[in-house]
Every structure is written in C-alpha cells, then in structure tokens.
Amino acid sequence: xxxxxxxxxxxxxxxxxxxxxxxxxxxxxxxxxxxxxxxxxxxxxxxxxxxxxxxxxxxxxxxxxxxxxxxxxxxxxxxxxxxxxxxxxxxxxxxxxxxxxxxxxxxxxxxxxxxxxxxxxxxxxxxxxxxxxxxxxxxxxxxxxxxxxxxxxxxxxxxxxxxxxxxxxxxxxxxxxxxxxxxxxxxxxxxxxxxxxxxxxxxxxxxxxxxxxxxxxxxxxxxxxxxxxxxxxxxxxxxxxxxxxxxxxxxxxxxxxxxxxxxxxxxxxxxxxxxxxxxxxxxxxxxxxxxxxxxxxxxxxxxxxxxxxxxxxxxxxxxxxxxxxxxxxxxxxxxxxxxxxxxxxxxxxxxxxxxxxxxxxxxxxxxxxxxxxxxxxxxxxxxxxxxxxxxxx
Length: 393
Prior knowledge:
alpha/beta; Rossmann fold; 3 domains; nine-stranded mixed β-sheet
C-alpha cells in the first residue's frame, strides 16, 4: 500500500470507531482486527502503520470527532509530511480544502477534563492518561518465583512482589512459561491494588466483580491455594473465561457464582457475614486505562458516569453484607475521578455505621481521601483508586 492509501484506510477505520463510540458498539481493537481480517492484501508493515495512525488520531482528539477525516486532519495540522499525503491520488484521501475544519484536540471532552481537574488530574498528569502502556506480567507464585524464573526476555522488576515489565508488543502468549501458567499478563498497578486485599491462606475471600479473573488468580496465589475463594460476576461469558485460566495457573480453590443484577444476594445468601475479605473491583469509567483504550473517553457521558457511581455504591452495600465482624471490604476502581474513588468511600462510611477506613500504603502512589491512588504520570502504571474498609467487632 502507498503511504496515502494507508492514511485513507486509517480514516475509514476511524469512521467505524467513531460510530461505535457514539452507539456503544464494538471496541476499537475489535474494529481494527475485523477490518484487517476482511482485507488480507494489507501486509504486516501496512497493518502496523495503519494501526499507529488510527491510535495516534484517537489520542489527538479530545472531543468525539465528526469524522475519521476530521480526526486525521487534526494530526496533519502539525505534521507537514502527513498533510502532504492528502494528495487525491488513487486510494488516497482527497486534498485538504481551504478552511476545512479539523477535530478538536485535548485530553477528553470538556466536561470530563473538568471532572479530572477537580480530582487533581490536570496538565501533564492528564496528558499522561493517553500515553502508551507497558506490558506487565505477574509471575504465578503457585508455580514459580520472579527471582528464579528464566524467561526468553529479561524483564524489569516492578514494585509488586512478582511483577515484571517487558517490551511493549512482546508476544508472551506464545511463550512456554505462559502456556504452563507460570506468568499472567497483568498491569503492575493492578497487582499492587489487589495485594491491598491482604488475602491469606485459609480465609474466605469473595471477588464480587471477578470478570475474567485476573485479580482472582492473584488472590489464589496469595492464599497459597488454601481456603475458599468465590469468584462472582453478572456476565456469563466473562466468568466462563476464568475456568481455563485457573486450570492453567494451577488454581484449585475458586468457586464460581453467576449473579443476577440487583439480585446478587440470591446467590450469595449463604455467605452473609461469613467473608474475611470481599474485593469490589467495581465497574467504572476506566479513566485510568485510557492508555490501553483511548477511545473510552469518547464513550463516557455525564449520565453514564452517574449510573456507574450508583452501581458502585450498591455493590459496596452488597459487599458489606458479606463481611464478618473484623473482616474487610476492599474497594477498587481503575478510575481517577473522585466520584468513583474517595467520594464513594466517604458516602459508604456515611451510610454504614460500624465501619472504618484502614490506612493503605502501597509501594507506589499517594493518599487520596480515605484511600490510595496510583496514576500513570507518577507511577508508570494504569490509574487506580483503592480503599480498605474494616467492619468493627
């Protein structure tokens, strides 16, 4: 493909991504993969170049662009070489018309930038949310140890006890160590906040929003495969992915429970007041994961954020009913908005007597309200908020 044809291809993909963002459709990664699957003529160099153009354009536009062309024009405005590729050639984009409007830049839609700034994330801290994410793995301590495990590439040790950072794009899924369950792909920040649960061997631990089980597997390793670990979710397809992952990791203590939204206690009644620890890794805006999913900021609205905040509060209330006296509730979101973090914890403590926030001090990050926050600018990982709440005896 010619360079101008690559630009036109990126514009076409961006049109699909913009439409999906407005309609809550497929993710950008899925759209890109499907586009290439239908166009086998694109070689590996073409695919790499087009993908880089697509994601650079997504990161360059704060508001949702009116079109893929407008998004690409936003990049071309500061790149003469790219602008020259709008030459009207065969399979390339039409020339740039006088006065043609490009998409607006910025970190996010204006209302969302304001919310981030009010939560202490602005300037370089806000721009870091759109950087490139590293590839982190967690060594599975049920089968191996970071200090002795030999991998094809020597990784950089992270602050998490079993974490390693590898070059971006490393195909770890093709490694024998991955297929044998010796390592799992998991962001270093995710590893740190999961460790805040303090899961111990022999305990009863509930992962209330387990998804596909990334943190569930870490909890099992920290419990040394002893005790009860109940992994719950409302999505059958997500939960179904946990079984094969647990088998590969050698995890034998996980019990899966599929929950009905707003009727969770129907499946959890036997655990009321029994859990030593409950992890609420709550659904959230994902502002801390924009490095991996930059189009996520185009999907979020003020109304959707309000719904997420209400859901988080309800899940914390459900979790509170599962915790025994002296037990703990650990609340986590991959968000940097106070409404989903420190504010959520303050509201919980106002609703529930007999609870207190325990100090959280991770190897990275800083205090935020009654909890702790990690952010990409300072900590080089995804953004997270975590709080640890104790039910008093």
